Please model this.
Amino acid sequence: MTTDTWIDFLQDISKFLKLHEEKLNPDIKTDTQLNKYWHLLNQAIKQAANNNIPQTKAVPKTHYAFTKKATHLHIALQKINKVIRILQHTPNLNPTQLILINTNIHDINKHANLSIPILTENLATTEASSTFLLTLKQTQKTIYQA
Model:
């Protein structure tokens, strides 16, 4: 806040207290009088603060914390989905795709504690890759259910 804002804050408090001057009694003798006086001061400060101090509203963000095992299974599921997508949409695999698939299979085995065989060039033929694809889909369902 700037100096001008603090001056406005002070002036707003002074105006509020002058408007309610008849309720202010400098001779406080009972708890009730003290509570009334305190309530007026509290109202004056709150009203001045609402008028002069800028406010922003922050919405709490939910944070989902999953277990380590659930996180690893989710990573494995993402990677197995990627491998299945590559095998379904690419009839002839080039060496770069074969390396990418094998890297993902290695990561799946590591994260999900599985032993999926690595895809070789011999298995990349259409018949062998279709059986490999079925195995991957079954593994995908298993990981999803876990």
